[in-house]
What we know:
By secondary structure, the chain is α+β, with helices and mostly antiparallel strands. It has helices spanning 5-22, 72-75, 78-95, 122-129, and strands spanning 25-28, 39-42, 48-55, 103-111, 143-149, 159-166.
Amino acid sequence: MRLAPLGYAAIGLAALTAQANAQSVVKHPNSTPGLILQSVTVKSGASTLYLSGQLAAPLEPAKNVPTAELTIADFGDTKTQTASILNKIKGILAEHGYTMADVVKLTVFVAGDPKLGGKMDFAGMNEGFKQFFGTADNPGTVARSTVQVAALAGPAFLVEIEATAAK
């Protein structure tokens, strides 16, 4: 098959566009490698997706109990809720053509755990986080803020996560 000169131009433009898009998001690691990034640059031309704060799903969704009546035990500890939320985020991203590798920023809100005297379970949240970032499937990581809050949308929730993805 022989391409007309315009065909070559279209192929060249597509290659340049793909190369530019690959450079549209630059992840900057900390000077000492760590669990999260120092920063991320999202250049013009990148598509960005902002996810609202997500909460964990009940461990037994078929239980048919109103959410207001559920307890922390129905959603799991901080690690379990973090993994549940990140799985939910993974699904939402997929619906829009993104992957967890496209996540550039997470904001994590953690309520105090009554079992820990009202302190947040930062280690548990990190354990849930490590199931999705810095793995064989997703070796990268993200910029992230984690804050303890007085409460979330209901007393059974220990974690809420907002995500921003770009590609």
